[in-house]
Amino acid sequence: MEAALRLLRERGPQGVTMEAVAQHSGSAKTTIYRRYRNRYELLLASLAFVEGMPEPDPGLSQRERIAFLLGQFRYGLEEVVGLRAVGALLPGDDDPEFTRAFREGVLAPRFEVLLTTLREGVVAGELREDADCPMVVNMLAGSFLARFAVEGTVPADWADTALDSIWPAICR
């Protein structure tokens, strides 16, 4: 899985093949096929790092919890899978195995944690009842992707800046 993630960061999704992973991991291709029936299963297993990401401390404020989760989102995209992999999602469905694995293994679980945290903020009375939580998640994640697409980099203070922009609209 480390070899698959390294290839993903260095070469993008098209560079993650069973043959390349075998070569870069020092394993026989047959060994990889014993564990993973196909490239999709290998990609999904490699992207399962999100399952081990810690949850924010429940003692933090909603804003601090969301900032923590945005930091994890950023780390996962920049350091684990690499922004080259994220860019592969944009032109369309050139690599449906990767697109499906990335959406199911990375984006959906992380977005769900953010969504749950926002909804908990609504229940706790910290956030407005009429806050469109799914839209807020999309706006926050989208702000990261847009900054990267336009500027080629994302400032270190992105999470705080994004929250500063949206917080007045959702806070009680």
Automatic annotation (TrEMBL):
Residues 1-54 form the HTH tetR-type domain. Keywords: DNA-binding, Transcription, Transcription regulation. It comes from the Bacteria. The keyword Transmembrane helix does not apply. Residues 17-36 bind DNA. One of its GO terms (molecular function) is DNA-binding transcription factor activity. This is TetR/AcrR family transcriptional regulator. It comes from Streptomyces triticagri.
